[in-house]
Design brief:
The protein has helices at 58-66, 92-137, 163-187; strands spanning 16-17, 24-26, 29-30, 36-37, 40-41. The chain is elongated. Mean pLDDT is 78; it is low at 140-145. The longest helix has 46 residues, at 92-137. The protein contains 3 helices and 5 strands.
């Protein structure tokens, strides 16, 4: 068991817990003329007007708990500060309502998932048809149409680079570098 504090914590009204008797008391104090005031016992359950807190409804208390500290940046939360939920035990009706909401959400998610799967299947079928049509147009060539570059289906990543395209790319890169250096010059602190 820990030892009681030498100077006990006091309330606004000056009430402290006596470490010997564990009763609430106003400790003895010294008057300006040097005489000593006696220790005053406080009845159990009595709360003086100075110690009465301002009434806060449950909604106000929740808002106070969620309020950002002074100087806090909106949208930023420290990684270790996970706000604990202020939920008490749910009533029977609240549990039933929660289950109903979960089922409804699962049903909605399932419907969305199914519609996504249908779209994916349709896209795959269309690509397969288009690929088969290209191979028929190519006269049954053995070359795979996916990676090849042709005028009908241009693939600029696989296209051979010409002198003209290299010059255009070089000009674009130099212009971009000049723009970046100009921006850095503007941002430079002097």
């Amino acid at each position: 068991m820990s030892k009681p504090a030498i100077i006990p914590d006091t309330t606004t009204a000056g009430i402290a817990l006596d470490p010997r008797t564990l009763e609430r008391v106003i400790p003895e104090s010294r008057r300006p003329d040097g005489s000593v005031r006696k220790q005053i016992k406080i009845r159990p359950g009595f709360t003086p007007q100075e110690d009465v807190r301002r009434f806060r409804s449950t909604r106000q208390a929740e808002m106070d708990a969620r309020a950002l500290p002074k100087g806090h940046v909106v949208g930023w939360a420290p990684p270790s500060a996970a706000a604990p939920a202020l939920k008490g035990p749910l009533s029977k009706n609240a549990k039933k309502h929660e289950k109903k909401k979960e089922k409804k959400k699962e049903k909605r998610d399932e419907a969305v998932r199914e519609s996504w799967e249908d779209e994916d299947e349709d896209e795959v079928k269309e690509k397969e048809k288009a690929g088969a049509a290209r191979q028929e147009d190519a006269g049954g060539e053995a070359e795979d149409a996916k990676g090849a570059h042709s005028p009908e289906a241009p693939n600029w990543a696989a296209a051979p680079e010409t002198k003209e395209s290299a010059a255009v790319r070089q000009k674009a890169q130099s212009a971009q570098a000049e723009d970046l250096s100009a921006e850095l010059a503007k941002l430079e602190v002097r």
